[in-house]
Amino acid sequence: KNKSQNYLILRCGAIVGPTMRYNTLLKLMREKKPHLSLNKHSQFNYILQDDINNFITKAINNNICGTYDFVSTTNMSLLDVADYFKCSPTYGSYTYTTPKFDILPLAPYINKTSEQVIKEFEETYES
Question: pTM surpassing 0.70?
Fold first, then answer.
């Protein structure tokens, strides 16, 4: 940031895509009764690798620079994710909470809920 006039810093939510590691989201997607270390009230904000890549390309082509919270419009609890995938996890005791972010500066570029991100990920990469 101090060495560039046109820097781009993206502070991203939970990134999902073809190269993601096997994590809680994938356990909920692929297992009927996963064992989780996190509480059902844990909150995540999901964002697609492809959306990040597309924004970086647009930023380069349109001289967009600065620091941005690159996140979806909503957070989603693990309970909601489990309901979405119709699985019955065993939950742990630790509650993780993603902070709320201001997405207004990026609204023209990313305007999806976490549920829309998960659905798109499931349809694109898990079929």
Answer: yes
Q: For residue 10, count CB atoms less than 10 angstroms from its CB and return exposed for 0-12, middle for 13-18, buried for 19 or more.
A: middle
Residue 101 CB: number of other CB atoms within 10 A? 17
Q: Which residue, 119, 22, 16, 27, is CA-closest to 82?
A: 27
Each residue of 50-67: pLDDT tens digit?
A: 999 999 999 999 999 998
**Separation in Å, CA 33 to CA 14, 27, 77, 123, 126:** 22, 9, 17, 22, 18
User: Which of these, 40, 1, 25, lies nearest to 114 by C-alpha position?
Assistant: 25
Structure tokens at 25: 């989201």
Judged by DSSP in three states, 70 sits in strand
List the structure tokens of 75. 């957070």
